[in-house]
Specification:
By secondary structure, the chain is mainly alpha-helical. The protein has one domain. It contains 6 helices and no strands. It is elongated, with a radius of gyration of 17 Å.
């Protein structure tokens, strides 16, 4: 049995994931006073549940990315998948900025849908090489899809 050497991606991917989570959390925290004024659907999960869900999603996403870097051939496909992860991270931060920072509910719905689509694209690209790494992203896709619908419902309830 061969042992793979320790790769840079074991450090960089978790750090990048932490950065995305921390920046989104900072933007969200700043927008909480405004968020408290919104009318929310009765089925909106409590804040603690949302925090737990996102924490799990970030961990699973980092593990998926590490598996991709660890096992995928260094070719155009890996470059495409890396780009998709970066776009996904940017959309993740952008949603927080648009919803909690700009208070733009209509645009937040659009960004949330793009975020869901970006996760689906990642799953499709990764599944061709690793079902396990792709499966790790399934909760993210489900949660992002739910969050898209929740964003839409909040927009509708607040004048959309």
């Amino acid at each position: 049995m061969s042992v793979k050497k320790f790769g840079w991606y074991y450090v960089v991917i978790p750090l990048a994931t932490f950065f995305v989570a921390a920046l989104g959390s900072l933007i969200t925290s700043d927008g909480m006073p405004w968020y408290a004024t919104l009318t929310l659907p009765s089925w909106t999960p409590p804040g603690q549940a949302i925090g737990v869900a996102w924490t799990a999603i970030y961990i699973l996403t980092a593990l998926s990315a590490i598996l991709v870097w660890q096992h995928f051939p260094r070719d155009r496909t890996l470059a495409l998948i890396t780009g998709a992860y970066v776009v996904n991270a940017l959309l993740n931060i952008l949603w927080s900025a648009v919803f909690f920072g700009q208070h733009n509910l209509a645009r937040a719905v659009d960004v949330a849908m793009l975020l869901s689509l970006s996760v689906l694209v990642l799953i499709i690209l990764i599944s061709k090489h690793s079902r396990f790494a792709a499966t790790l992203l399934a909760p993210y896709f489900l949660w992002a899809s739910f969050a898209s619908y929740l964003s839409y419902a909040v927009w509708r309830l607040n004048g959309g």
